[in-house]
Prior knowledge:
Blueprint: E1 3-7, H1 24-40, H2 45-50, E2 54-62, E3 73-83, E4 86-95, E5 105-115, E6 117-118, E7 123-124, H3 129-136, E8 160-163, H4 178-200, E9 209-218, E10 229-238, E11 242-251, E12 254-267, E13 272-273, H5 278-285
Antiparallel strand pairs: 1-3, 2-5, 2-9, 3-4, 4-5, 6-7, 8-10, 9-12, 10-11, 11-12, 12-13
Amino acid sequence: MRHTYECQLRWADMDLLGHVNNVTYLDYLQEARIDMLLTHAPEERLTALAEGGQILSHEVQYAAPLTFRLRPVHIDTWVTSVDGDTFTLAHEVYDEPRDEDGARTVYLRARSTLAFFDFELGERRPLTGDDRAVLASFSEDDVLGERAAYTEPRDVDFGDYAIRVRFSDLDAFGVVDEVQYFEFFQEARIDYLTRVWKASGVTMDRAPMVIAQMDVDYLVPITFRTEPFEVRSWISRVGGSSFVIESELRDGQTAYSRARVVLVTFDPVTQKAAPAPEALRELLLAQLP
């Protein structure tokens, strides 16, 4: 069984291409997950929600662009596995088919691993019998394949970026909200690519890009402070129309989060992947070890 949530779009959700921003989708998934917990958590629903908010990882596949409209988009959420004190949710953002013979239009598929957390004790709490019963009622097969592995972090020219935590980045429990990490890595990624391009002196036409997949692991919670954190990014793979940027958010020897993003160059007319301009591809290849 799947839990279905109808998510309202906002004009502010759009990016410069007129699509729902890749970071905003995490807000949508968070709303769907909370709605599922509030609707189906046994008895003390708000308490269950408060103790159930620690995200360990997100794997997000962007399947098709979603543009603004007044009607809501559907989000299905279900459970793919329960392992010890953690469980994994799958999500699908979609529109129902317009006729009986049609297929649903899928905009995004995702997989999220969570653990229930006791914020007063500052530690994970075990899954109760009630927790397992609720989770079991939503058990279905996974829709994502095996995730790609991270490469070893490395320092590269222009790959360093200092990110400051804003007070508005914090959630109700005083730690940086899961969604903001996607924004942190986005800022670092844009800064990295811009500095590489400017330093090269290469002149080329603008190449539209979209994100095909983004994986984020949450290693240590971040609390507010005025000193910036360090994000280092590097390119780990270059293909014909896609390339991979990996990042690590850290402070000294402590790694707080890891990310891996697959970007694809595309044709804005056909809205499909297109080969990267040769000048861009050569620039990216030069960043490989």
